[in-house]
Prior knowledge:
Elements: H1 6-9, E1 10-13, E2 21-25, H2 43-46, H3 56-67, E3 70-74, E4 96-97, E5 100-101, H4 110-137, E6 143-150, E7 153-154, E8 157-158, E9 163-166, H5 172-181, E10 188-190, H6 202-207, E11 215-221, H7 228-254
Parallel strand pairs: 2-3, 2-6, 6-11, 9-10
Antiparallel strand pairs: 1-3, 4-5, 7-8, 9-11
Helix pairs in contact: 3-7, 5-7
Amino acid sequence: MTATKAEDVVEVLNPAGESPVVLVCEHASSFIPPELQDLGLASADRLSHAAWDPGALAVARRMAERLDAKLVASNVSRLVYDCNRPPSAPDAMPARSELVVVPGNAELDDAARQARADTYYHPFRKTLADTIKTTAARGATPVIVTVHSFTPVYHGHPRTVEIGILHDSDTRLADGMLEAAQGSAFVVQRNEPYGPENGVTHTLKEHGLPFGYANVMLEVRNDLIGSDRQQRDMGDTICGWLESAMTALSEEGQA
Ligand SMILES: [Zn+2]
């Protein structure tokens, strides 16, 4: 049995990126460390959207390349620890995710939950905080952008939204992106397929709001980012909206 080390649970891609944008992918990976014995899951469940956000990392990588931005990505499945949830949230280590029951999370006591948070969440949180600090230390005002994907069918119901632009109490960047997305070929909606009331804005609240940094969460329906080509095109499309929103923000700042 090998213990998971802090440097294995999170990585920073393009750490020397010059953009003020810090990209975040909390659900980038379906990896379950061997010591957790697949959390007792069947392989279909272990690789399903319950375990990660298929396509999200590839889109975020393309955005990092286009923007020359840093990208902080979790290397561990959200069924082990959902890095977009605080340790106090019951669904940080879910015993059930949509239709998937997670046997390895069924009977976690306080000590086991604390150990999961210490091993997986806190290193992620610190690496992201340090990356944002580095960006600010260079004189730029950081912009926090989290990148996710969602399943086209949830609890048996098809979802018509194709791209969600989500925010918490700071709507600046989302407003600008929604404006830029008008007339797009995609169905783009505010705070869909879920919103802050579902607890999904944890990263924004932890790393953006307290510092006044503009922030947004992006959700892309995963059937639209299945191929390399789609991932690249989606990254480019979203970057266009983001750049337009950032330009509008900086012009307002100077007015
Ligand atoms: Zn996600």
